[in-house]
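Researcher: Sequence recovery benchmark, item below. Answer with residues only.
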């Protein structure tokens, strides 16, 4: 699965994803234009190329006393019915610092709202821990989900954001903490002690972080959910064309499969 954030997808992009052997995508839709493009253009292309819409990255902003959920979520959930799509939620804030538990109550209220709506259409909601956000760490996501244990609510392990917030030595602890709620994983090539996105988001065949060991540990812990490629902004950070990143990363992914046989 490919995680695509900001670049508007065209037919050629979807065709490339399919030809290279990816099983689906997880695009962004956090405004009216994004949702309209997703429902009227991207979903038909996914159906044509027999690709899955694994997740839709949207938005929640949490402030003291109030939370703002992207209104496009509720308006467009019906278009996702029957697809097994996850609503992928980062939690941003201007009034709270990253990982501040003071924002938990408002985050929980927003999560309840989205999960209630998603359940009407047989869909799930997955928190996206993101460096610098209110929910910055896997620990934050688990703390919030712990308060409303629901079958359609879970958390994500994002390799690049985990490395930037917690660092590589916390892997065993973080994966074990996340496992009861882990619904989605994103990986990419990365340097273990990288400090910026150019070091933390690379093609899967680059970087000194041991992706094979991570995959083996996920397997050992019993994770059987989707694993996506994080390829955010490799063109700007590394000068690598996104299609080339997809090609190289798929070759690396297949090499990991061969090693496990």
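Model:
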């Amino acid at each position: 699965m490919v995680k695509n954030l900001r670049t508007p997808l065209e037919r050629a992009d979807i065709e490339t994803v399919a030809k290279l052997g990816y099983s689906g995508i997880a695009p962004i839709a956090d405004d009216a234009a994004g949702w309209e493009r997703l429902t009227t253009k991207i979903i038909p292309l996914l159906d044509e190329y027999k690709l899955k819409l694994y997740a839709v990255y949207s938005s929640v902003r949490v402030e003291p006393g109030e939370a703002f959920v992207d209104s496009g979520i509720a308006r467009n959930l019906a278009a996702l019915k029957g697809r097994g799509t996850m609503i992928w939620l980062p939690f941003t804030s201007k009034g709270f610092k990253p990982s501040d538990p003071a924002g938990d109550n408002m985050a929980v209220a927003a999560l309840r709202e989205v999960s209630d709506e998603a359940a009407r259409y047989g869909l799930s909601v997955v928190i996206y821990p993101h460096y610098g956000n209110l929910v910055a760490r896997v620990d934050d996501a688990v703390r919030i989900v712990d308060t409303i244990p629901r079958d359609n609510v879970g958390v994500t392990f994002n390799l690049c954001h985990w490395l930037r917030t917690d660092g590589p030595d916390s892997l065993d602890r973080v994966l074990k903490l996340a496992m009861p709620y882990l619904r989605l994983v994103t990986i990419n090539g990365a340097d273990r002690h990288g400090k910026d996105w150019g070091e933390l988001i690379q093609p899967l065949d680059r970087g000194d972080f041991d992706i094979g060991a991570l995959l083996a540990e996920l397997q050992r812990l019993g994770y059987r959910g989707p694993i996506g490629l994080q390829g955010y902004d490799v063109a700007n950070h590394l000068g690598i064309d996104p299609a080339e990143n997809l090609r190289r990363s798929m070759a690396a992914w297949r090499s990991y499969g061969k090693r496990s046989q």
